[in-house]
């Protein structure tokens, strides 16, 4: 059996090899996130370092100790960043870090670089694996919008979608036709030094019923926080989201019925798998908006650290569109939230179930209706 | 000087008296949130109870002790809820609470009732007051969409908007013409037992620069969690949000310039006042989507607690549109997030400022550019 | 079956009726903690109020909602406190609260009154009940020292001790002879307006193996924090404690052996049931030191709030010795710590046990060796 | 000015070079904690690795990013641990880790090794520095008991004690005569393969008034947790501690008076600098008991992982007495607790002081009475 340790390494390879058309590489191939040349639609940096597990595993097993994964950044070139040290790049964190701390790490952007998400992805790999083994949870994200190319809602069947469909192209859009349109859109801005953003849709199938909390820690609240903590994200919506406000209550409500397996189900799923902050067993789905990358190859007005107005032309590499690379990050954050809530649920509700006719133990057959 | 204690009471009156055209009633008039007959567009419940401060204040001052505000619900009628005890109301928390706990409080919905937000509003009142006194922060929310009536983006000047404009009508939309259209839309569904949702926009002016954190606790992440923890909310977007994905980087970036007061400012504000998870001193603005109220006066298919398919017709009162009532809740949650981050910032960054040319002490003149 | 709700009420009666020689009164008899005249060795205050459960239960069952227990303090007399408002009582929290907050609640001491522990006891009652039902955990505390009267170590058999033995006298010392000596010591200081302190010993039998964490949240660390959070406590020691430093390693080590039931046990228990921060299945035992009550009926030098030196003679009631009343508080805090750790353990370690030969599921027969 | 970064490195050298008679080595000399041959009274391991700062600093300044200090353990020899992998060492964490996790890291003990404290010491160095610069706080710990050698209470003047006195000998006892007795005691057990424990006393001078919280997070509770989280610790007492129970209230109370600088002070300090959970400006002092090291060079009865009774003779290095090495750990944990509470205090109480006659701003002259 593949160990959890390998899962970590395997997951790291996901982010690194988007072009490989498979996220299931062996752990020998793992390289760092933010790695360059992953495809022509992303940055041309050369970051060839490998990750090392420094603690937390023993003979291929996790030991309960925090797992320390070290990913050195060997492609960091101080010289590249001279300009940045002086001028605040528009819509970057440069100014706000200076305002908060009075100092910042110029090389590589420090924590404001999307590189920091590699640590999340490593942890998410473990979470995904446990969720899958324990309850059959499947978390899949994909690109559903790039700039003005919008994947139609009905182009993807949330119950049948596979990882292979998503990874069949470098844009991580499961529909080949729209994937090509998106790649074309990215190529277009790449050539002229501009950038674009888009939307990632994420689904989670077979999530156990009962995850989440009634008040502050509603499942959708935790997911919203997790997604807005990702670099460049500007919006989150679950289920019907903003579009749901166009409907009336009678159009929007999800009617209940008993399915053949004896489970309470909903005919529609505008709730997005969550009602009152708690999962109801239907597929969870939500969308995350990512703004166009702030770093562009065009001249912009800005000010220096010394408060002088200047013009800035950022030289060197930049990402024309981060959205394909955001896909595994979105999956990761969803996995971490669900794993936390699974643990909380087991601790709070499984020691003394009050009504077994209503409460299905985690991992039982009934709790995974969508698998049938 | 008005005490913090009075602020709590005064704030409670906000939620209670939306029809009063003023949120600044004396503390004698405070009544409970969710109170009935507050206007014809909301529920006809009679909840006439007053709130009591049971601990935490002494001679009109808070003492540092937790403030205990008790708001008894005297209009709770067990009889009204007989049907609910049996049948799961579509798109309510009934089912999910049973799945999680195996038991639920049927009367009044327990924690799944929006009534629970009154406790938040009480705390938010204190937070708002401190934010205002310390840094001049002004938090204002308003209804920007009801069903398919959309307030145009340019109808509201975020820098000039006043509380009076918002409270000038029972819909809490600052534009009288659109307010009327929204009220008409609500009246229409109210009459036929249906419901509608909408969008609340919130702005926060004069937020000190430097609030928030670089990674997991980005300011926008905390706001997103806070908003999605509100009952019936389905979406959150900050700054340009989902619409920002239609732009290119060169269109979207907020260029910096030096203003006359010597502050670094941005020409545009698509970032929504937050860059890299940290406030930049520009006005923070975001939107929250609220679904149509789940309780409607129409027959719906559902199942009982005993797993029988049945038809349900919920009798009695219901809210045709919660969006106007959500306005103070959105303000409250924004205030609580900003207050927490203000405290964290003071603790983390004000004891040893490293670079006073860049870091403005909280409460100094420079940190509130928009006030000038 | 007795409901959890009743457990709360029953527990409240513990603290209230120490003279009743039984902690298992019906819930009808529950009164408030800190109640007066509970015996001649405690304070002569009249606090006759009953507690009310305001939320969190439904038809005798907890609903998952926070349980709100209100215990009004009707014996609060402002007049009694005039002096305190001016003068800082030596070794009280009066000065430090003023230093921290600039204001304090003079009547009844606010949060510095031991009355605040009633809320803990209510929660602890629920925790104790769950621990008992789930794993057979028994938590018993008793007075082992009052002033210079020291109960000999071998006077109590930790494995055989019963609640009845402890509650057989108003001093809550299970040995009648030493109990009488302690009561005599308290009577002596009571008469001359002085006070004394002492030590409470607490044992927890049948604690599941594996509770606690390896580093910061060691089980003994959590217990130490819980105990030092009790009013008037000044010290904590687990297992051999301070006296263990008189031994060599070969004298102190607890050798392992296999018992007849096939469990790994220790011949001695100087570890106090915890090794490396994690419970090992042996009886947990620890001691807590409580200083002599600060309020005494003797003239003392002190200063006023206005920084004048004065003499203070505190009139009115005071406790000559809080130690007997601290017994249920110590049990309560132990129960809360163990309950928290039980929940954490179930969440962290029971979903995917790696080695069932070593890890005993919570609630299984083997995990409660001492019960046999 | 010495940077915070250097402080980290300098602090690491403290733990490493106890024989050097100075804790203020340059950062070039920093080596790892738990390093061998530090003196004849500790373990003969050879751990010569240096620590590296991998992130969190930029041009000698901290950047606000977490500081990553890596200390590789190059002296780890799998072969040494073969026996441990099979047999549970008495009074070690071997058994309990297996009970909890079903797996453990045998080499070097994993997290159950005292080596983990090096991470704490690194963080504590930063905390100590900030406390010193901001408020003049001085934290000093020393050995006050080794086995049955007890340093008399009056041998150390808490107000005059210096670091040099403590570091004047390898036992870290400020009294040369008693230090020699302690060293003799350690030498004696070292020769015959046995071990002994002892007590560390810690003082904190010039702690600002007002740190701590009234209920669960009392300052003494946080200190107790911090100390009991250290490996091998079994007890904690603050101020008069367990011995204080021998006194009456009139003997124990600390009377207040006005000092010449206009500060409220106490004549005695049995409270140990904390009243009602909050610091009062007097010197904080507390004691921590450490049991004799569990690893000894003598044959002991135990059981194997496969549940066989066997005799174990642990070969190789071991520490005859950890108490001198615990001294910087105790200081470290005290610094971390005080730093946390300082930050909390600034956030909670310094934004809106209610009564400036009572509340002294952190860092003001008056708040450090003992410095005069």
Automatic annotation (TrEMBL), chains A, B, C, D:
Reaction equations catalysed: 5-O-(1-carboxyvinyl)-3-phosphoshikimate = chorismate + phosphate
Species, as recorded: Aegilops tauschii subsp. strangulata (Goatgrass)
GO molecular function: chorismate synthase activity; FMN binding
Name this protein carries in UniProt: chorismate synthase
Pfam family, one: Chorismate_synt
Similarity comment: Belongs to the chorismate synthase family.
Recorded GO CC terms: cytosol
Enzyme Commission number(s) from the entry: 4.2.3.5
Cofactor: FMNH2
Keywords assigned: Amino-acid biosynthesis, Aromatic amino acid biosynthesis, Lyase
Pathway info: Metabolic intermediate biosynthesis; chorismate biosynthesis; chorismate from D-erythrose 4-phosphate and phosphoenolpyruvate: step 7/7
């Amino acid at each position: 059996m593949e160990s959890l340790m390998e899962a970590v390494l395997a997951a790291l390879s996901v982010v690194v090899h988007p072009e490989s058309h498979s996220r299931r590489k062996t752990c020998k191939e793992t390289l760092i996130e933010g790695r360059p040349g992953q495809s022509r639609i992303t940055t041309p940096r050369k970051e060839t370092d490998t990750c090392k597990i420094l603690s937390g595993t023993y003979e291929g097993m996790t030991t309960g100790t925090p797992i320390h994964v070290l990913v050195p950044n060997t492609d960091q070139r101080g010289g590249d960043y001279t300009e940045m040290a002086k001028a605040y790049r528009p819509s970057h964190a440069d100014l706000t870090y200076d305002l908060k701390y009075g100092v910042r790490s110029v090389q590589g952007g420090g924590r404001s670089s999307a590189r920091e998400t590699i640590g999340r992805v490593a942890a998410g790999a473990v979470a995904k694996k446990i969720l899958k083994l324990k309850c059959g949870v499947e978390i899949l994200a994909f690109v559903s919008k790039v700039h003005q190319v919008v994947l139609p809602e009905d182009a993807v069947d949330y119950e049948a979608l596979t990882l292979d469909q998503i990874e069949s192209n470098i844009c991580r859009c499961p529909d080949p036709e729209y994937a090509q349109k998106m790649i074309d859109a990215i190529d277009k801005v790449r050539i002229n030094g501009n950038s674009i953003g888009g939307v990632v849709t994420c689904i989670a199938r077979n999530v156990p019923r009962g995850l989440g909390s009634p008040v502050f820690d509603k499942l959708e609240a935790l997911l919203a926080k997790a997604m807005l903590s990702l670099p460049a994200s500007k919006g989150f919506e679950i289920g019907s989201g903003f579009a749901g406000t166009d409907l009336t209550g009678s159009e929007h409500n999800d009617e209940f019925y008993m399915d053949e397996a004896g489970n309470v189900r909903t005919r529609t799923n505008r709730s997005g798998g969550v009602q009152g902050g708690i999962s109801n067993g239907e597929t969870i789905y939500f969308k995350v908006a990512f703004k166009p990358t702030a770093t562009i190859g065009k001249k912009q007005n800005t000010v220096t650290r010394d408060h002088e107005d200047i013009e800035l032309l950022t030289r060197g590499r930049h990402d024309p569109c981060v959205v394909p690379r955001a896909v595994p990050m979105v999956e990761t954050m969803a996995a971490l939230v669900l794993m936390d809530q699974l643990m909380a649920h087991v601790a709070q509700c499984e020691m003394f179930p009050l009504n077994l006719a209503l409460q299905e133990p985690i991992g039982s057959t009934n709790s995974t209706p969508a698998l049938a």
